[in-house]
Specification:
This protein has about 100 residues and is an alpha+beta fold. The protein has a single domain, classed as Roll (Nuclear Transport Factor 2, Chain: A). Helices cover about 20% and strands about 60% of the residues. The chain has a 6-stranded mixed beta sheet. A hairpin with a 2-residue loop joins strand 1 and strand 2. This is Nuclear transport factor 2 family protein. InterPro entries: DUF4440, NTF2-like_dom_sf. It comes from Streptomyces bathyalis.
Length: about 100
């Protein structure tokens, strides 16, 4: 997440496996190349992003709860399931949350 917010693509590429898969309500199992083309360059819309909780989910998975603030001042929370194998991120499944009031 730090490399995304900083738009440090070199660092992100080192952390994301070649067979990476990304799923969200807007993207259905897109591959690594599509993720870097469509999703990675969107950080300019953020003012900040903070991980609130990381919980083991069994096997190679962890749940991450995070909050982000848009440049507009709106704040939102999402949950992700991240799969990490051999020190690299192999899958991300994003579940969009609502606005934080």
């Amino acid at each position: 997440m730090e490399s995304y917010v900083a738009q440090d693509r070199e660092r992100a590429e080192a952390l994301i496996a070649d067979d990476y898969s990304f799923t969200s309500p807007q993207d259905d199992h897109i591959d690594r190349a599509a993720f870097f083309e469509r999703c990675f360059p969107t950080a300019e819309r953020l003012r900040s992003q903070k991980i609130l909780s990381v919980v083991p989910a069994g096997g190679d998975d962890v749940f991450l709860l995070y909050e982000y603030e848009l440049q507009t001042g709106e704040r939102h929370r999402n949950v992700e399931v991240a799969t990490v194998r051999d020190g690299r991120l192999t899958e991300t499944q994003v579940f969009f949350g609502g606005r934080v009031r």
